[in-house]
Write the structure tokens for this entry.
Amino acid sequence: MRKRAVLTGGAGFVGSHLAERLLAQGVDVVCLDNFVTGSADNVAHLQGHDGFRLMKVDVSDYISIPGTVDYVLHFASPASPIDYAELPIQTLKVGSLGTLHTLGLAKEKGARYLLASTSETYGDPLVHPQPENYWGNVNPVGPRACYDEAKRFAEALTVSYRKMHGVNTAIMRIFNTYGPRMRPNDGRAIPNFVTQALSGAPMTVQGDGSQTRSLCHVDDLVDGALRLLFSDLAGPVNVGNPHEMTILELAELIRELTGSTSPLEFVDRPTDDPSQRQPDITLARTELHWEPAVDVVTGLTKTISWFRDRAADDQPTFSPAALNPGNATQRRHKVAVIGTGYVGAVTSTCLAFLGHDVCGLDSDSARAGQLNNGQAPFVEPGLPEILKATLSSGRLAFTDDPAEALSDAEFVFLCVGTPPGPDGSPDLAQLESAIQSLAPYLRPNVVIVNKSTVPVGSGNWTRTILEDALEGNRELSFHVVSNPEFLREGCAIDDFLYPDRIVLGGSSEDVTRVAELYQPVLDQSFEAGRREVHPALITTELASAEMIKYAANAFLATKISFANEMAQMCELFGADVRQVLPAIGADHRVGNAFLNPGVGWGGSCFGKDVAALISSSQEYGYTPSMLQATVGINTAQRESAVRKLQRELHMLKGRRIALLGLTFKPGTDDLRDAPALDIARRLLAVGAVVSAFDPVVKSLPDEFAAIRLTRDVYEAADRVDAVVVTTEWPEFRAIDPDSLRRAMRGNLVVDGRNCLPEHSFAGSGLRLVGFGW
């Protein structure tokens, strides 16, 4: 039976990484968080995992968890000076009452208990480095006291429960930890310096910068935490990196690694700011056989890359907890959305959330009923919550009755599929049928808004089809606007509500009417709006708007294929693409986004849209050779994954191969044109035996019936000769190499997304093979 852990603060920076690693090691996770400093987005990618459950809970209140619990990990607490200065009472309560309640849960369940304490219990230390038996130099009434004393009390309470109640407890003292998912504005040195350096703002060094810190990458910290959790050691145990550096040295290093020209600006140093910080990790080394493996340059480089990608993507996080649909003050409009697939369901739900009255129309009554019951028909983080909230507001409904949806609609959005035909050109049969079905129900002066991806010139085609369908009603006026969608699966709600741009094509008057629908987004005036987001409204002619969607996807696909071309060359020349591409992306004219080598792109958009552009161009006598090469390189990358297996294993017939990840990208259950399935098809064709694990995929099309779907990574790897990572689900980065090696018969791991931490595999007996190195 699988073990089960309760993790408080599980949606925070450290907690989210812990949740990933626990799941990867076969431990189910109940994640508790009140989202004061954590975010549901940190664990959104885990929501489809069978063993993961997220609950909004304040552990300062009584908690009750039904069923068995094997581990309780108490990681809830504000953890940066800026947070606990604003939330002193909450900080004290989570350290006292929260510790009391979680210890009570561990006592009730007979669970192993791990307390996340802190190096702040040493205060401004008079002993250097700090061993666990040092009592500290803490100001109990100073500005940091709420955090320091909360953790000191938590340690005392934990020791008392061990002594008086026999609870199997452990205490970990965490030193300065950093890595992906830190909040840019959390006030700590590394996110401050990185965001300032990337933006070109002055880098604010407190005091003269001579105070020291010891920086531990989050991967190392999580490794230490789990070693302590799975041991019999009670602690306290220092878990941190003994490599000490001054704040000034840190600022200069980050400036160098980012290539920034930001000046250093010296500001006042806060009261009670520790002058020195360095852990003595003798106990961790001798008892847990743990020490940090990620050096500061490598760790900071990865962290900077994460912050840079975050800035490039400009993805403000949408929090379902903040839902209050319809709070915008703009005029409400009546909108019909034809088609409730991926684009249609998201468009319907988000427009209703903005305050409009929306009815989604689908000929499939079962699909309409499912949506009316608040059930999202596909995996999309945040959609179930916003769907239920908007349905309850009374402004959103779904139907299979055209008259109900269309008769009083001021705007009709076309969101039906345009799949590629045999020659790559879009099949417009569904769209034509939808347009013709509108005619009997339209009100005068209605605006037809085309969000379906259609060939350039389809705006005129739409007008003609509708005019012919209105043969008996020539007096009815209508307008056509192109509004291409730029929704990425896995973050579609963010993309709709916090877009880079909204593109509208058509006459000036018609475009102005449609822009009014989006005014809450343009102004960010809705309930969960973000002041720092400033979407651009781009208005064009019809044909240009239609071309923008194709051009955008063609460029992104080409950028990935370029990265893969460079990866192939790096393998030939003995270079490391993991060093080459970040250096290219550091140029602001290029950017890091989509410079990702591996098994290539997939999904419903890139291939279809590039094929449509090629097909349309050839109709006009032009062959876009660069786009043809983009497709060719992408196909070759999938073949390359199989060639790597053949090079290492030679004959593949009868070999057992495990594929980790089946969807074309993380955060979705979409299998369309997924590289994993193409690779699986090739492996099955040569006689390989294929197993697979994906966090959200529970079934496959009939042609892949031979693939053995499993419940986790290690079951998929059972007795296999090789493992291939084909989708970069974040939890795969937390795979335990030793457990993986024990499960496998062979020792080959092909990292098809260059996402696995190479240092973790050192000494594991596994051979890690990537793309471009």
Notes: The mean pLDDT is 90. The chain is about 40% helix and 15% strand. The first helix runs from residue 13 to 24.
